[in-house]
TrEMBL record:
The chain crosses the membrane at residues 7-25, 37-55, 67-86, 114-135, 147-166. GO terms for molecular function: hydrolase activity; phosphotransferase activity, phosphate group as acceptor. InterPro entries: Alkaline_phosphatase_core_sf (IPR017850), PEA_transferase (IPR040423), Sulfatase_N (IPR000917). Residues 235-267 form the Sulfatase N-terminal domain. Pfam families: Sulfatase. Residues 274-296 are annotated as: Disordered. This is Sulfatase-like hydrolase/transferase. Keywords: Hydrolase, Membrane, Transferase, Transmembrane, Transmembrane helix. GO terms for biological process: lipopolysaccharide core region biosynthetic process. GO terms for cellular component: plasma membrane.
Amino acid sequence: MVLDNRFWLMWLAPIVAGLFSPYARGLKCLIAYEVKIAFYGFVVLYLFYALFALIKSPLVVKVLRNTLLGLSLLFALINFFLSHYFDMLFTPNTIDTILATNSKESHDFLENMVLPHSGVLLGALSFCVLFLYVVRVNVRLSRKIHATLIAMFILGISLHVIKLAGTSGGVMEDKGFSRIPYGVNETIQRVIPLVREGHAIYTSLKEYSNNQAIWQAIREPLPKDYLKVDSDSVPNVVLIVGESASKNFMGIYGYPVPNTPFLSDLEERERESKIYLSSQTPFRPLPTRSPLSKSY
């Protein structure tokens, strides 16, 4: 089995993207996170190449390696873009947001957020192409090297499992958003390249039918008298959406990330209705008969 330049590029890409991850805040978190990506990324790619070595057709092997290369670079670029510019990760929630985004929000997002940074993305792609043409590192693995690598894999995974067992709650926390996952599920979902993205896609598609039913119910036209107040209704209703919600980071108020697809869709359908989105501090008295903020 030969580890070619595609292998090393696929191995390095997630490591570089991981430098910008929210889980890599602080030197300690950065080192721990990058070591895990490097170790598990090598294990996953080694297993793929070992499976490819069992295939007799060189053409099929070439197609599979190029497909794996394309997916690895695509996921690395997505993780870099989300982490560096939005402090986000490639998770099922991210995929759900993309699936729920309407065409207008997608167009605004591409125009306001992707195109201004297209130079960075093109530069990263150019570097990958240059790496493939310039770097010619082909490492042929003998049986002795195979045995050594497998022993190292077993030892590394065993030590990690032991550490998992000794970590309370499966997660070691640092300040703020810097959380290095040590639980098994957290490792699969947030650390292992290709596996974490595959898990996110699988989880999102698994719940897609349920989400579609919910979205369809939300998109259904509301009754004409749904704002009617009868004698049994309470005089006031206070709806608390989120303690840390801010309209500065909501797509419905102009934030370029389409993170409020339901509200934006409701805005398109109910422009003439007297519906108000409240973002009021609890330290000021609420008005009783006036809009609290921007109406839609």
